[in-house]
């Protein structure tokens, strides 16, 4: 399922786009937000299927090699361990995966150069060579290889990231989250399975409500939140405070005051981590200091009231 951190990031990005565009249509911006969430869930399925396309490409190369005028013994008797990987076959034949791919028109069919490039990189990887030459032929070994592929072969691949950007602007920065979901899915696979048990989009209905409510309230409370933030940044050069810093602190303030079941520490930790990746190098420390002061004041005023697990 999509993590709360990802949902927070989606809200921040949607608010950024809404405010920078000068839009006054909240419903349209919220619709775009939810489309972005749906697209990230699509990416989870698309990434899970990419190893199937790479294996099919590998098999096509083996078939071409057999058709040489003077094929070698290796050409005629290729190592089919990767091509016949049981977990890859399970992914390829699972309705739970294929139904989503078909319904959302998701495929790598137009990305032949990428699939070829990923295959050429894969066969040079140490974990691939170890897998192909290992004496252990088991479902567990197949699963371990696929897990290593998704952990080691895709993240930070520039061609993959560039291709995803071309396929959808809404996939910007989503790859890491999608790969985490794939790895979690793999951890639940058993040899007796005939279907992939895919993760739901949301952990619960509460998460879907969380992302919508956080966006709506953050937008409605934006000016009030900025007034609070301004009081604690008076000694700073306003021109030097990044717009993204202000936006992150504003959304964090909304969460602190409008979601009583979310602990203060959880909110602070989440937005400080988000700031490290989506604003300036010093933003984490700066935002931490300002939010600490905001928490003290709003708690004293009774604007931050936590209940249930929020008291932990």
Can you give a write-up of this model?
The protein has 312 residues and is an all-alpha fold. It has two domains: 4-187, no CATH class; 221-311, NusB-like (N-utilizing Substance Protein B Homolog, Chain A), CATH 1.10.940.10. Helix content is 68%, strand content 0%. Helix 1 crosses helix 13 (243-258) and helix 2 (26-66) crosses helix 11.
Classification by helices and strands: mainly alpha
Total domains: 2
Low-pLDDT windows of residues: none
Could you give the order of the helices and strands?
A: HHHHHHHHHHHHHHH
Rg computed from alpha carbons, rounded to a whole number of angstroms: 24 Å
Shape: elongated
The main pleated sheet reads as: none
Notable features of this structure?
elongated, N-utilizing Substance Protein B Homolog, Chain A, about 300 residues, 15 helices
Summarize it.
This protein has 312 residues and is mainly alpha-helical.
Topology:
Blueprint: H1 4-21, H2 26-66, H3 73-76, H4 86-93, H5 95-103, H6 112-122, H7 126-133, H8 139-152, H9 158-167, H10 175-187, H11 205-220, H12 222-231, H13 243-258, H14 264-278, H15 283-300
Helix pairs in contact: 1-2, 1-11, 1-13, 2-4, 2-6, 2-10, 2-11, 8-10, 11-13, 12-13, 13-14, 13-15, 14-15
């Amino acid at each position: 399922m999509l993590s709360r951190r990802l949902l927070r990031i989606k809200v921040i990005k949607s608010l950024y786009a809404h405010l920078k565009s000068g839009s006054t249509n909240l419903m349209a911006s919220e619709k775009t937000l939810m489309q972005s969430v749906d697209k990230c869930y699509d990416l989870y399925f698309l990434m899970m299927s990419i190893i199937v396309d790479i294996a099919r490409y590998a098999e096509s190369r083996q078939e071409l090699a057999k058709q040489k005028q003077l094929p070698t013994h290796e050409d005629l008797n290729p190592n089919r361990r990767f091509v016949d990987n049981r977990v890859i076959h399970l992914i390829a034949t699972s309705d739970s995966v294929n139904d989503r791919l078909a319904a959302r028109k998701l495929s790598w069919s137009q990305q032949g150069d990428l699939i070829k490039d990923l295959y050429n990189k894969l066969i040079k990887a140490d974990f691939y060579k170890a897998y192909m030459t290992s004496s252990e032929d088991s479902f567990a070994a197949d699963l371990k290889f696929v897990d290593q592929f998704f952990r080691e072969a895709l993240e930070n691949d520039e061609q993959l990231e560039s291709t995803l950007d071309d396929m959808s602007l809404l996939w910007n920065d989503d790859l890491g989250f999608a790969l985490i979901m794939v790895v979690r899915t793999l951890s639940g696979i058993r040899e007796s399975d005939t279907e992939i048990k895919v993760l739901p989009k949301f952990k619960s209905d509460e998460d879907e409500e969380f992302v919508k409510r956080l966006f709506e309230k953050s937008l409605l409370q934006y000016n009030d939140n900025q007034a609070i933030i301004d009081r604690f940044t008076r000694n700073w050069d306003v021109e030097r405070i990044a717009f993204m810093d202000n936006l992150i602190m504003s959304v964090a303030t909304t969460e602190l005051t409008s979601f009583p079941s979310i602990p203060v520490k959880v909110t602070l930790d989440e937005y400080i981590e988000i700031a490290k990746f989506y604003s300036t190098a010093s933003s984490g420390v700066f935002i931490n200091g300002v939010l600490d002061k905001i928490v003290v004041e709003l708690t004293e005023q009774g604007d931050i009231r936590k209940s249930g697990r929020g008291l932990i």
